[in-house]
Amino acid sequence: MELSVNDTPAYVYTGGRPFDRRQAVVVLVHGAGHDHSVWNYQARQLAHHGFSVLAPDLPGHGRSQGAPLPTIEALADWIESLLDAAGVVHAALAGHSMGSLVALQAAAQAPARITKLILLGSVAPMPVAPPLLEAAARTRDSAHAMINQWSYTPASQLGASPVPGVSLTGLNLRLMERQRDGVLANDLAACNAYQGGLEAAGRIRVPCAMLCGERDQMTPRKAVKPLQEALANVPGGARMIVIKGAGHAMMAEAPDAVGDAMRGFLTTT
Amino acid sequence: MTQPRTFGPETLALHAGQSPDPAFGARAAPIYFTTSYVFPDADHAAALFNLERPGHVYTRISNPTNAMLEERIAALEGGIGAIAVASGQAALHLAITTLMGAGGHIVASHALYGGSHNLLAYTLPRFGITTTFVDPRNPDAWRAAVRPETRLFFGESLGNPGLDVLDIPAIAGIAHAHRVPLLVDATLVTPCLQRPLALGADLVLHSATKFLGGHGVAVGGLLVDGGRFDWEASGLFPTLTEPYDGFHGMDFAEESPVAAFLLRARREGLRDFGACLSPMNAFQILQGMETLPLRMRAHVANARAVAEHLAAHPLVAHVAWPGLASHPDHALAARLLPDGAGSVLSFELQGGRAAGRAFIEGLRVFSHLANVGDAKSLVIHPASTTHFRMSAQDLAAAGIGEGTVRLSVGLESVDDLIEDLNRGLYAASRVVQG
Ligand SMILES: Cc1ncc(COP(=O)(O)O)c(C=O)c1O
């Protein structure tokens, strides 16, 4: 569906079911250079099991108009505006990679509105390797190739895909190619510059899950520790869920395990 | 962060789409000979139908062995995915019916495989889909044929059997200027000699019956989606950009801007028209594809030797193989087919129809049959077989004469092939001399 967020048209995918704000609302925030379609399976699973899903294309991404927003803080503000535009008071937030920083920051900024937090492939701070930053700004194709190489496990680069007949890396390459010029560079720069993550984490007082791909090379398990420890005020501590066999692109590589983990966490905590 | 590397075609041909079997560790591709798949529980069943989870429900729609084949060709072509179907013809039908209904119009090269020509010229008009055939070498002809109802451009990498080289970048540019995709039949080149998607095509089809299998034991087709065409921006494809009552009211381009075509083709075309591939055939084609890069190199080397030998023979008026400097598309082939122009070639025998017949009957190693792309060398006389429905005038327009002989040069010892051709040429010479 289309919403007007800050007077700018934004496209929001709802997981194949009409949006109904009377149900528990989950917002799914995609990562750098992506759009809502990275969430297809998880969004559909949640939408068919009692949740109302808002999976927006962030400004300047996919079908959403406007310029891409330059900072994680500005994106977090935008998520709040999205909730306003949808007439939603309370929502759970989930984000992947850059989207996880946006979700974290939004949850810290609006503690009264955010009921639960799911961080997928998340580390804070999130420094981006200089060659990737540079490639994103100058030679997009090589940046896309680097992201594919580092986001998908060797098994999913060469072996069978969980989605019959679909090449996961091929699909991701074309999804990144579709974004407008400058979008990926903007997003990676925003990740790289964001320094407020650990401080924001200290302000989170709602249940929080961290999903980490067992073989993630972009945001590896070891690197997740500081953020997990900074989520010190989360009741019972942040729950770490390791997605077996998956890399950073866990929603694509392990769609069932990720969807089940998200639904399980949202349903039981 | 190290520089990324991608796998080479030899590696992809052996591995892409196939992990060691999770149940027993089998290294070879298992044949999942099953029509249907057990649901662990009712919730899981519903989730599969709702597309909340990927997976298999019924082999008409997807099958694990077929998926290996689909993912392998997608990787080799640089696409986002593929659909395996019962034949090359079924792949063409699936592409067309996914994009348009009655009232739709296609602009196609006139140098097409006879079966594709039949479908477009005679059969689809009964369902309200019409085609204008154009000279593939003339960009203005493609442009001039476009109508408001045009929804697809279609041509063959190498026109069968005229061997015209399709100028994919140029024709794709014209298609895109008119907001329609270009579908390329790449059967005669395979991804080892040309990757049409990288040249600007949007969709690729193969008769996997031919070089991909290579053994001549299995009929099959593959339709590959490049994932680049922007259906939404085009605005000409309501099947992809409007809710479909037949599948959860899904708007495919909203669901997946990149994979909309593939989604609709599987969820509608494969489901409803039902031209699915047998997993046995998928297995056999996979076996063939393992050696595709090796075979294509050998095919091209033999084709070159045969073409050069024929071109130097006094009884041969003309050899059509884009690898020869005498071919009008030689320069284009050097650009678009740098690793070789395939191994199908045609030549014009002096002495016309009678000489053609004597030639074919004089051969012992080449098999006289209606196919191309087998590991074994094949020969046919189009005017009396594949293209017999066409008038002399249409034949001439497709570059076929009465004495035209088409060869699919196989992998035998090249000396044996040349010896065999000499035998046929000698027989033909006796006819010519009376
Ligand atoms: C170039 C080309 N395309 C398509 C086809 C049709 O393929 P199939 O026979 O697998 O239906 C053929 C078959 O000869 C062909 O040569």
Automatic annotation (TrEMBL), chain A:
<keyword id="KW-0378">Hydrolase</keyword>
<dbReference type="GO" id="GO:0016787">
    <property type="term" value="F:hydrolase activity"/>
</dbReference>
<dbReference type="InterPro" id="IPR000639">
    <property type="entry name" value="Epox_hydrolase-like"/>
</dbReference>
<protein>
    <submittedName>
        <fullName>Alpha/beta fold hydrolase</fullName>
    </submittedName>
</protein>
<dbReference type="Pfam" id="PF12697">
    <property type="entry name" value="Abhydrolase_6"/>
</dbReference>
<feature type="domain" description="AB hydrolase-1">
    <location>
        <begin position="26"/>
        <end position="260"/>
    </location>
</feature>
<dbReference type="InterPro" id="IPR000073">
    <property type="entry name" value="AB_hydrolase_1"/>
</dbReference>
<dbReference type="InterPro" id="IPR029058">
    <property type="entry name" value="AB_hydrolase_fold"/>
</dbReference>
<dbReference type="InterPro" id="IPR050228">
    <property type="entry name" value="Carboxylesterase_BioH"/>
</dbReference>
From TrEMBL, chain B:
<dbReference type="InterPro" id="IPR006235">
    <property type="entry name" value="OAc-hSer/O-AcSer_sulfhydrylase"/>
</dbReference>
<dbReference type="Pfam" id="PF01053">
    <property type="entry name" value="Cys_Met_Meta_PP"/>
</dbReference>
<comment type="similarity">
    <text>Belongs to the trans-sulfuration enzymes family.</text>
</comment>
<dbReference type="InterPro" id="IPR000277">
    <property type="entry name" value="Cys/Met-Metab_PyrdxlP-dep_enz"/>
</dbReference>
<dbReference type="GO" id="GO:0003961">
    <property type="term" value="F:O-acetylhomoserine aminocarboxypropyltransferase activity"/>
</dbReference>
<dbReference type="InterPro" id="IPR054542">
    <property type="entry name" value="Cys_met_metab_PP"/>
</dbReference>
<protein>
    <submittedName>
        <fullName>O-acetylhomoserine aminocarboxypropyltransferase</fullName>
        <ecNumber>2.5.1.49</ecNumber>
    </submittedName>
</protein>
<dbReference type="InterPro" id="IPR015422">
    <property type="entry name" value="PyrdxlP-dep_Trfase_small"/>
</dbReference>
<dbReference type="InterPro" id="IPR015424">
    <property type="entry name" value="PyrdxlP-dep_Trfase"/>
</dbReference>
<keyword id="KW-0808">Transferase</keyword>
<dbReference type="InterPro" id="IPR015421">
    <property type="entry name" value="PyrdxlP-dep_Trfase_major"/>
</dbReference>
<keyword id="KW-0663">Pyridoxal phosphate</keyword>
